[in-house]
Amino acid sequence: MKTIYVTITGMDFCCGLDFFRRHDVLILKKEPKNEWDREAIAAYREGLGKVGYVANSPKTVLGESYSAGRLYDKIGKKATARVEVITEKGVLCKVKGPFKD
């Protein structure tokens, strides 16, 4: 199975980058009723709550990571992801499977 990475963005609206550490585990939860993006996937961290969203724009997706739209149908209602790289432009995370085909 291919490794899937995603970019977490929108931290400025939550808690910023200071609370992220490499190997932190995030919970990714679909938000099908999100009024701005029907494929929105929020990122949560234990003790902090919502810390951002999976990027869903070519301008915010880092490198070869998946956008929320590409990931949306590959996961159930939620999934876990591990922080790999932290940059000023976003947090790159490795998504844990299994994935739907």
Automatic annotation (TrEMBL):
Database matches in Pfam families: HIRAN
GO molecular function: hydrolase activity, acting on acid anhydrides, in phosphorus-containing anhydrides; nucleic acid binding; zinc ion binding
Superkingdom per UniProt: Bacteria
Lineage, highest ranks first: Bacteria, Bacillati, Bacillota, Negativicutes, Acidaminococcales
Keyword hit for Hydrolase: yes
Protein name (database record): HIRAN domain-containing protein
InterPro entries for this protein: HIRAN
Alphabetical keyword list: Hydrolase, Metal-binding
Keyword Translocase belongs to the record: no
Gene3D superfamilies found in the cross-reference section: 3.30.70.2330
HIRAN domain span: 3-57
